[in-house]
Amino acid sequence: MTSRITEVDHLIIGAGFAGLCAAIKLDEAGETDFVVIEKDSDVGGTWHINTYPGAECDVPSQLYSYSFALNPDWSKVYSPQREIWEYTKGVAEKAGILDRVVLETAVHNSVWDEATRRWIVTTGSVDGRTKRTYAAKTLISGSGGLSEPSLPDIKGIDSFAGDTFHSARWNHDVDLAGKRIAVIGTGASAIQLVPELQKIAGRVDVYQRTPNWIIPRNERAFSRLEKLAFRHVPGVQRAVRAGVYATLEGRVPAFAKFPALLKLVELQGKQNIAKAIKDPELRAAVTPDYRAGCKRILVSNKWYPAIASDNVDLVTSGIAEIRPNSIVDKDGVEREIDVLVIATGFHVTDQPIAGHITGKGGRTLAEVWGEKGMRAYKGTTIHGFPNLFQIVGPNTALGHSSIIFIIESQVRYIVDAARTLRREGLAAVEPTLEAQDAWNDEVQRRMQPTVWVTGGCASWYVDEFGNNTTLWPGQTFTFRNHLSRFDLDKYVGTPA
């Protein structure tokens, strides 16, 4: 095992959309001394890892891309996983930043050193052969909320003798043809993978805890003429993108201020059910009893036809235990299976990276957030953690639009912070507790009338303290306006 100490201006954790955007924009700003640490074997983040059958984006392709790197070659309105991954890698290659990406390397610990005013970051290669320590002026976390799978706490789950894998860690070596497959979960991943499994499996048992509102997916392929126009006619693709953006932003008042308007979405959802499912008992089982939008609204034309198929059984009674070759539900019914697929989402309100970041006073971010939940100033900087910048931090995720818009907004703020540090001769900046508290109090005040609070459901948006620390309760352009410049007056600056 080797150990080296490397000094860098900026250390970026994660090479997904967030980390790559930070690297590209820092590079363009002349902040070229950075390294990106990525635990997986290639760049792309969630779009490199999630390779389950049917994996696609549920945000229109035109908006699910960087504003500075539009893609005229999307195959259809909602892009498949492979296309998105190839897009992110292509953008990174063209930007010339891949030489500063270190793959198959995990961040073990990041400690703020008050004496040197640097983040001391210990990393290790996945194979365990190489250990490297960095001393970084700034630490930029782009690890994301969809990076670490969340596993269900079910009696006997470790005793299952067949093949088991999470949707985000798909095992393509397992032959699923004709197999008896159990899928735990009915969220965004499950509604994409179950229709694909249904085509080849002998039987699929789907274990549903709570049904979701699922509206039709207005899917279609882009024509050759459209692609030619996107590529060769100035302004066409940007205009289409602007139209998609405006359409999605138009939904915000219903989510944030007037949840009753979401009855229109519920009508779409019920029509989607009625079109595919004739059995009244199954219809009732998949119809939510809470307001649309309280949980993430999903889009699919394939989910309801799949679960109405003869070889699919929807189980809503809950799981009592898992045995070596079967699952027993809470009604006592035992179903034998060959393969167990877990589609229960990710650690979102308890991000694992927080346990690997230690700020002032020797406290980890996980310990600090464990007291009141995730809190940050403008979702980006955190009191007690100088020069730490988190992309897609608390209250920055969206229930209506593309997270790429938020990422770019935060990266602009971070790049301006880097410029400010250099211009003002500062070694470190840290948001004041007053600024952070005022920001979070206002966000939670604005959260109260939203459907995420009043909609009558329990969702992964809400933490153990009952606060929605996941979503931004407003339009994305208001968020961007808040982060239009680095506001040094809300920070304590330490001279170099």
UniProtKB/TrEMBL annotation:
Keywords: FAD, Flavoprotein, Oxidoreductase. Pfam families: FMO-like. Its EC number is 1.14.13.-. One of its GO terms (molecular function) is oxidoreductase activity. The keyword Flavoprotein applies. Transmembrane segments: none annotated. Belongs to the FAD-binding monooxygenase family. This is NAD(P)/FAD-dependent oxidoreductase. It comes from Nocardioides jiangxiensis.
